[in-house]
Amino acid sequence: MDIYSTALVLCALFLTGSGDPLIPPQGAGTQTGEQTPVLSIEPRNAVVRQGDSVSFRCLIQSGAQPIQLEWKKINNQLLADNVKMGPDGSVLTISNSRLGNQGTYRCVGTNAHGRSTSSASLTIQYAPKVQATPKGPVRLRVGEAINLECHATGRPRPSVSWQRQGGGKTGTSSSTEAKAMVQVAAASPSDGGVYVCKAENSEGVAELKVEVTVEGGAQTPTPPRASILQGDTVAVEGDSATLTCQATGYPAPVIGWSKLRAPCPGSTRQDSGQYICNATNTAGFSEATVQIEVETPPYATCIPEQVRVQVGDVIRLQCLAHGTPPVRFHWTRVRGSMPPRAQITDGALVISQARSADAGTYKCVASNKWGSSEAQVKVTIRSA
Ligand SMILES: *[C@@H]1O[C@H](CO)[C@@H](O)[C@H](O)[C@H]1NC(C)=O
């Protein structure tokens, strides 16, 4: 098996190398050239699997004999213990190759005229290795984020992806070069389980499992129970009222508000009425209601605003007010006292047997719990 794959690699490289020019001598120095060794290496590049063996042959193209050959690794690193030179130095064999053997090898030829080198490179292919962050097991609570990252090494560069054991969605997963992510913004119980990172290249497959536990996941769905924090509420017109609805239940209920039609149509207190909080989840729904009364201070008007009567007639003044009942009315006379004949009933001021002294301006003040408002009416008396 080893021999077979090595032979294959060598054959492929001979083919690609056939058209290439020979590597010119390096380090020929000031020598005139003809006599200095000229070397080449076959193959010039080798790609082997980890554990396989490979040989490089250093060929003497020209140069005056005797030529002494030796091999060095680039940067004059020592040759590893599994790298051996043949007796005449022309063949370098790397047996049971490992990652550390990767790199550039130089064949150095020396004779009486000088010294030259040729180099070749070795690439080791290996099956992927994977690493996950966090390592796991991962424990988190419902609603928290899941972020898993898988990093793979290997040559050729592996493809890497996340899968769920037993199928199922992995949330947002993305893979870029030799890296794959799983992202879930808010974990739900169904996101719990075993996540498998798989990396693959021509040399093999690597898998790594990360167990994710989403706590609170064992909870069975329970129907919502809605409650409104405020009791029935009275608000003054123009002010704002805040109602808070809260709901228990699993999964977390969605809360919505609506309003029942106002009890008396045409009411000016448009916002008064019954408000409904509706909490819904997969297990059911729950409603809670609250009564809101919007109170308004009075707004007074007099009808009519001018009154003309003949002496001896009855003066009738009417004050009207919008506003939350009960509304009380209070009549006074502007600059002057109220005639003793005046009678007040339900916002109406009645003065019998008008006299010219009754002429003037009268004021009505309408008031309720929330405020007061005034309106005036002018009375003119014509003599008969
Ligand atoms: C509350 O929600 C449930 C389910 O969506 C619906 O059937 C019900 O009519 C809603 N109640 C109100 C008052 O909107």
How is this structure best described in words?
One of its GO terms (molecular function) is axon guidance receptor activity. With 384 residues, the chain is mainly beta. The protein folds into 4 domains: 2-126, Immunoglobulin-like (Sandwich); 134-215, Immunoglobulin-like (Sandwich), CATH 2.60.40; 222-295, Immunoglobulin-like, CATH 2.60.40; 299-382, Immunoglobulin-like, CATH 2.60.40.10. Helix content is 4%, strand content 55%. It is built from 1 helix and 29 strands. It has one helix spanning 2-17, and strands spanning 38-42, 45-49, 54-62, 68-73, 83-85, 91-94, 103-111, 114-133, 138-141, 146-155, 159-164, 172-176, 179-184, 193-201, 204-215, 222-228, 233-236, 245-250, 254-259, 273-281, 284-295, 299-303, 306-310, 315-322, 328-334, 342-345, 348-351, 360-368, 371-382. Strands 2, 4, 7, 8, 10, 12 and 13 form a 7-stranded mixed beta sheet that branches. Strands 1-3-6-5 form a 4-stranded antiparallel beta sheet. Strand 5 (83-85) and strand 6 form a beta hairpin. 2-acetamido-2-deoxy-beta-D-glucopyranose (NAG) binds at residues 258, 276, 278, 280, 285, 287.
